[in-house]
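Hi R.,

Here's the chain you asked about this morning:
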Amino acid sequence: MDMEQRYHFIKNGTKLLGITLVVFVFMKWILPMVLPFFIAYYIASVVRGTKEKEKKHPMLRILLTIGTIGLLLMVGWYLCQEFMELWSRREELLYWEGAQESGLVGQLYQKMIQQFDGDHLSDELVRKVTSPFGGMKDTLGGFVAVAVTAVATVLMIGEYDSLREKLHQNTLGQVVVALGKDLSVAGGDYLRAQGWIMLIITVICIVALFIVGNPYAVLVGIVIGICDALPFIGTSLVFVPWAIVMFFQGKIWLGFYYLVLAGGTSLLRQFLEPKFIGNRVGANPLAVLISIYLGLQFYGIWGVILGPASAFLIWEIYRFT
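And the predicted structure, written out as tokens:
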């Protein structure tokens, strides 16, 4: 490596390091303070864009709205039926020897509750979940943030045209709008990819529960699908304890069935996440996986979103400068 190549290497490395530090500071401390206004501006742009689309295709919009509402009502009615039936049988489902305090599972359950109370693990979990968003640690802070977002959204919808014009006239505003547009596109692709993965896992769980004749397959499958989307939780949070319960009840094959489901769905997510998200966002799957891992290390549980967002923002700023 000659002198000129070494100079460019040091220069680019220093620039990348500086951008990385700036993005980290922004994501860790500044974003929680300005997030309500970013959300408000995004909602205002969507609302204004929706109004323009409605003028061009009013009938299509009406049909899509009616179809969506109808589908949601059908699914909601079905879930309510399952939930009401499950609730009416709660004592019957819970009353078996292993769940009593004298049983082995009951004793393990009591020990687990004591451990949670003694070590304050629940408080620690809440702290980790809310740590990247210091202004929203308590309920009051969350309500304030929601109220600020709602008020700012209403104001920005009314002043959207003038606000947008001022942003485009300002050099810094142009940079922010350009980066925000690219980030929103990538972020939307990322969230859609996560949604598709969650949908696939949910459908697999529902079908698997239908196969064994579970009368609450849809309700339980959706709950498991939501758990699977949460970092460090996954389908194992439901299937593994469920399998243990089946073993204590003597239903050995059903216990192994749930263990296979837990392992299979976990492996499926590990396989789909880098490929699916990488293809959607247009990034290398390994880079996406690394960004998620580093995001979890630096931002906590929110790093699943903030990690890839930070990596994309670093790359965009690096190219822009």
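The chain has a mean pLDDT of 75.

Let me know if you need anything else.
M.
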